[in-house]
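Records of this kind hold a single protein each, on a pair of labelled lines. Below, a sample record shows both lines together.
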Amino acid sequence: MLMLLFLTLAGIIVDGEWKVYQRSTESIPAIRKLHLALQVEEKLIAERGVSNFLLQQDFSEDRAMHGKLAPVRAASDRSLRNLRQALQERPGPWLAPVMADLLLTEQRLAATRTDMDALAARPKEQRDPEAAAAAIAMIPSTLDTFAPVVAALSSIAIQVDQQFHDGVDSAQLATNLRNVAGQMVSTLTAPVVAQRPLTAQERYTFAKLSGQADQLYGVIEMQLRAYSHKPEFKTALQSIREGPLGDGLDLLTKLFVIGRSSGGYDLTPDQMIASYVPKMAAISRLRDLIVMDMIREAEQRNLKARYFLLATVGLATLALGVFFLLLRVIRRRVLRPILEATDLFVSLANERLITSIPAPRYDDEIGDMMRAIHVLKAHSQERICLGKEREEMIAQLRAASDTDFLTGLLNRRAFFAQGEQQFGIAQRYRRQLALILMDVDHFKAVNDQHGHLAGDQVLCKVAELSRRCRRKVDLLARYGGEEFLLLLPEIDLEQGRAVAEKLRVEIGACDFQLDDGVSLKISASFGVVAFEHDDALESLIVRADQALYKAKDGGRNRVMALPREPGQDAGGRGQDGEGWARADEPAKLSVVSIEK
């Protein structure tokens, strides 16, 4: 039991650490895939900003502007390729929808680039404004297609390890913050390029985005309070507050104020982008810092769990060895003698007296116990012999008290003792029960003519024939004199009548050979009744006696099956108090007789 308890505790510890090790092992690649997806989202947002800016320019006037789009597109393609390779390294059924969304994103991005290149090839004054707006809106549509990829990978990372829930949310919020910052620049790009005031929609969009930026930063700062003791996080948050949400936001707000009135901006679009976009890198650094911290934490937990598993398994193995050694020593020096003595006590308790008792090997407590067992065995043998003799005497007395001395059948007392049980079952569960009362016809004449010894021989022969006709569950008893009772469980009145008729035929067909060589023909009369709401076994016997009386009154050597009359009480009397049937009504009897 101690070993089992120890192994159970060790198993619980190993199981818990194994789960930690497994979660950390699976969470590292899941977080890396999410990081790659966030980088793809960042690159697509950057490509959207550059594409939006370049569509406001005329490539024929400044070819250098066209060269700015190629590196951005190459970065997007590289990030998509890295994510696709990571997803293909360990494919699974849960990654199939992610891969499908990623391929759809690549297809839509390629179509978007084709449309934008065709539009940018035209001179600026020949570009359809609606087509330009549609081309600019295609990259956000591509981002919407890619959003399920980020959501699915975030969900997978959280499902693998719930402890990274806040970290995953913070990384997504940082990406959203960078997206909002990029949209703020994109909102002001067209007015600055055209040197025109902001439209009402642009003013509303910029105000909304600036508010979202403050809210996102507040949520990120609140979620990262647990990391306030780490200086790198504090520095990254300060860089965002002083950079894109500090000087950068002040610059954009200044342009927003100018755009609300005159539209005479004091800087070019290149200067605006060069002043603000580099500051957005602080947001990406915070996101990468969050992801790297999650990966570092997962690696530390993985390493700790691995060492703990090895140590636990090693200590458990060592402890098992010590347990087995102690068990061997204790069993040899202590338990084996006690176990042998226990087996001897059990053998004596189970009366297996043939078990040999070994001689004591040591003159100690175990030796004294072995000598005491020798004495106990001798006493047990004497007690068992006395017990067997007593049981035999009790069995003989019980058999003598329950058996009729002449016929060997149950006597009247034993019949009532066992019959009450059968009657109680029939009465409680409404089971069928039949009772046959049999009387040997003209038995007094046999005694008078041939003597009482011949009468006894006739009764013994009738008892033997009755045994042949009964089942094992039936109760057969000598009721008194030449009367016999047969109680038939699970038998109705008609079936009881058939049993009585069979017995009547057997008795009538038998030749009763007496000791003096005389052969007699004997007949018997039968009264058959069935349990019908009787309140006691005696009332059932009373009705059987009435049926037997009808059989004898009808000429003997016949079977009378007597059902209970409606309104008849348990004593066999009708409502008028004049017996089984009124004088003006014939009794309802089932009579079977033979010709004499």
